[in-house]
Amino acid sequence: MILHALTDHRRMLPIERLGTTVPAHPDFLLVVSYNPGYQATAKDLKPSTRQRFLAVQFGYPTPELEARIVAHESGVDGSVAEALAFLADRLRNLDEADIIEGPSTRLLVHVGALIRKGVPAPRACEVALVQAVSDDADVQQAVRAVTTAVFG
Predict the structure, then answer these.
(1) What's the per-residue H, E or C state across the chain?
(2) What is the pLDDT of residue 34?
(3) Which of 31, 41, 57, 76 could join 112 via S-S bond, C-beta 3.0 to 4.6 A?
């Protein structure tokens, strides 16, 4: 709620413990990164706060773009990057079914970096993807089955 006065017409930041307010600079702009519904409903923004912002919603990149990103950021060749993007696309179906949160592009880059450093793809997927997406053994087995189908 402290942001309300800063983000509305008042453009002031109240600092209660000092008993003062700080006016926002005329060029002040507040940018908030927020993952709605992530981990706990207690972290959801209240409507009175949410209405003070414009929203830009991002999804996952297309598999083609994601493969290019993974190749560039991890240094793996195009075929490995394409396989990782394909794997992520398949695993994100489990996300849509609320089984896991789909792997991020950042996670794929970590897997790719391990592969580039000589870790075999199945092992890289195991330590940097399977173990990262869930602590549940049954879910890990399902993710492992998908990674095995892609990388053997």
Answers:
(1) CCCHHHHCCCCEEEEHHHCEEEECCCCCCCCCCCCCCCCCHHHCCCHHHHCCCCCCCCCCCCHHHHHHHHHHHHCCCHHHHHHHHHHHHHHHHHHHCCCCCCCCHHHHHHHHHHHHCCCCHHHHHHHHHHHHHCCCHHHHHHHHHHHHHHHC
(2) 74
(3) 76
Query: Above 70 in pLDDT, residue 52?
Result: yes
Q: What is the mean pLDDT of the chain?
A: 88
Please state the rounded mean pLDDT for residues 4-30: 90
Q: Burial level of 130, CB count in 10 A (0-12/13-18/19+)?
A: buried
Alpha carbon 31 to its chain centroid, in Å, reads 17
pLDDT at 98 over 90: no
Provide the CB-side half-sphere exposure for 46 (13 A, CA).
6
Beta bridge partners of 15: 20
Q: Report d(CA 7, CA 19) in Å as an integer.
A: 19
Other CB atoms within 10 Å distance of the CB of residue 122: 15
Radius of gyration of the chain (CA): 21
Q: What is the pTM of this model?
A: 0.73
